[in-house]
Amino acid sequence: MKCPYCQSDNVESALVCASCSRDIAVPATLIAERDDLLRKRDLLRDELRRARAEIEAIMTRRKSR
According to the model, what pLDDT value does residue 15 have? Predict the structure, then answer.
């Protein structure tokens, strides 16, 4: 595992960086929360893309009248 602070390599199970002594462990609950937020972000991006396409279609219909 690479330390996000000093970029030194550590063993995968390390809780603290061997070089800079900073905490590098990420609790499983935070990883799960991050994954959930990424999934929600992707869903919102898809929804926004669809809404933009719908607005564009409405604007195109209005212009063609």
Answer: 92
- Report whether pLDDT(41) > 80: yes
The answer to whether the beta carbons of residues 25 and 13 sit under 8 Å apart is no
Positive/negative CA dihedral, 24, 28, 33, 34: positive
Between vectors from CA 14 to CA 34 and to CA 4, what angle results, nearest 5°? 55
CA 3-9-11 angle, to 5 degrees, is 95
Place of tokens 């595992």: 1
Q: Is 14 in contact with 1 (CB distance < 8 Å)?
A: yes
Residue 28 has pLDDT above 80, yes or no: no
Q: Which two tokens stand for residue 15?
A: 């809780």
- The model carries a pTM of 0.61
